[in-house]
Structures are given as C-alpha cells and as structure tokens.
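TICKET: design request
STATUS: open
ATTACHED STRUCTURE:
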C-alpha cells in the first residue's frame, strides 16, 4: 500500500524516520512552543503525584515536561505506534535523567492495553490531527482515566495558519491545498471542545493559544519546506514556483518582516463517576 502523505501516520515506514525525530525535538526547543506547551499542561491541571498517560508521545517532548510536573511520587507513560520514536524517547529520557518516572510503550492510541480507570489524566498533544478517526483515541483515553480524572487534548488548526508573503494567492493555494490533502480534518483544533463534550465529560473548557514566529525558526522553516515539497508532489504548484515561494519567505526573514502564526486549541474535561 502506498504511504499516506502525512508522515506522522506511519513514521517507521518513511525513508528517513530520523528526520521526524529531529523535527519533533526541534519544535520542542522553540521558545514560543515551550511556553505554549507549558501553558497547556497548566491548563490541563496535571498535579504532582499523578499517574499520567500521553497518547502519541512521539520522542517524549511533552512526557519530559509532564515528568517534572508529577515529580518523584508520580509516573508518566507515553504510548506511540512508532518504534523509532519510542526508542528515541527512551534514550532522551535517560539523557535528561528522567527515566525513573517515565515509561514508553509501542502501541496505538485506539487500542490501549491498560485497564479502565488506571490514570489520573490522559493527554494527546498534536496527535488527533494526524489520525483518520480521532474519536477512537479519545474514547480509549476516557476509558483508562479514573472518574474525577482529566482528559486533555491539544491540536494546531491549519485553518488559522497565517503567513506574511508577497504572493497571497499562491500562499493560500499552497497552505490550504496541502492541508486539505494531508489531514483528515485540517480544522481539527476547533473541533476538540465539542468532541470532549460529546464524550460526556464534565466541566469542559477551551483554551486558544498562538504559535508566533517572527524569526523564521528552524522548525517553522522545515514545516514550510515540507508544505512546498507536498505542493509539488500534489501538483498544486511546479518545482520552480515552490522554490520561488520559499525564496520569498527567506527574503522576508532577511528583511526582518517575516510573520507566521498558527492557533493551537486545547480542551480539557473531567471524567464523571
Ligand atoms: C506531531 S506528533 C506529536 C508528538 C508529541 N505528542 C509531541 O507533541 O511532541 C504526532 C504523533 O502521533 C503519533 N500517532 C499517529 N497515529 C497514532 C495513533 N493511532 N495512536 C497514537 N499515536 C499516533 C505519531 O506517531 C506521532 O508521534
């Protein structure tokens, strides 16, 4: 079967899975992303001593933050279908000396091997966007959370991806055209609030945060390069057009006028007894 165009659907099947290890870690280091992630974890209400699950943990960026929040009395379990990511997550946890509180397992979020109600909280950060059936994952997250515990989800929403660029028509064609073909729902971020309510969670709240980059960070650049690559392979633009589009972005950055913003929507709810 041909690979899906979204690499996060099957990282281990990619010709260079290491590229995605680097990409997640690069995103994790961007200052604006660190702030955004930590604000979301605070909003989710994770407490010291909790036992927390992160579904779709990737290389463990969020799990490492969670480990410092839950402290020595708590525990964090990360689950991801990619063996490459889980191996990288274990290595990075050791390097950060957090491995005592962190455990990583290979598996799908749609079929968790945990018993009902064993976690105080279950989180999925920028995962639901990448799966064809996000409800199957949320359903499992709700199942493994104890009554009174929290379920928290966060996603970027590519309907809000804004970029300053001299060619606005081409920018719209590339950003919207690629997002429509890569993701099951490119506007997934704004659906999360309603999804948690439909699952019967109590006290569901929404927080909207913005990723903002005026310096053309390496992570933003690699995301834009990937958009251009996809636009060519999907026939949205020719190779020369894509190169010109990327050159204009670099020129904005050199002139100090680069602006890129993207909304991240986070929703949290409490499992009712
Ligand atoms: C963009 S990454 C986010 C990783 C991590 N949460 C972070 O914020 O750094 C999306 C992750 O979803 C994982 N994923 C894809 N399909 C999944 C599924 N069915 N169940 C759980 N995770 C899945 C991918 O392997 C990848 O690690």
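STATUS: resolved
RESOLUTION: sequence designed for all positions
ATTACHED SEQUENCE:
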């Amino acid at each position: 079967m041909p690979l899906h165009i979204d690499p996060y659907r099957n990282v281990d099947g990619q010709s260079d899975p290491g590229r995605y290890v680097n990409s997640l870690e690069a995103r994790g280091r961007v200052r604006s992303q660190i702030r955004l992630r930590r604000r979301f974890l605070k909003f989710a209400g994770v407490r010291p001593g909790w036992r927390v699950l992160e579904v779709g943990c990737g290389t463990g960026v969020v799990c490492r933050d969670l480990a410092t929040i839950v402290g020595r009395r708590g525990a964090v379990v990360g689950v991801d279908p990619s063996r490459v990511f889980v191996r990288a997550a274990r290595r990075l946890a050791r390097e950060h000396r957090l491995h005592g509180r962190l455990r990583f397992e290979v598996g799908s979020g749609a079929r968790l091997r945990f018993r009902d109600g064993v976690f105080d909280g279950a989180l999925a950060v920028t995962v639901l966007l990448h799966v064809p059936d996000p409800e199957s994952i949320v359903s499992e997250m709700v199942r493994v959370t104890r009554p009174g515990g929290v379920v928290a989800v966060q996603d970027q929403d590519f309907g809000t991806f804004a970029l300053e660029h001299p060619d606005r028509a081409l920018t719209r064609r590339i950003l919207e055209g690629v997002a429509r073909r890569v993701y099951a729902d490119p506007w997934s971020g704004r659906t999360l609030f309603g999804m948690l309510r439909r699952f019967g969670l109590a006290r569901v709240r929404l927080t909207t945060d913005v990723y903002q980059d005026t310096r053309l960070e390496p992570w933003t650049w690699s995301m834009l390069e990937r958009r251009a690559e996809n636009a060519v392979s999907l026939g949205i633009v020719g190779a020369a057009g894509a190169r010109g589009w990327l050159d204009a972005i670099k020129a904005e950055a050199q002139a100090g006028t680069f602006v890129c913003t993207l909304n991240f929507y986070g929703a949290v709810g409490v499992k009712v007894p």
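CLOSING REMARK: The pocket of S-adenosylmethionine is lined by residues 8, 11, 24, 55-58, 61-62, 80-82, 85, 108-110, 125-127, 130-131, 137 (CB under 6 Å). The chain is about 40% helix and 20% strand.
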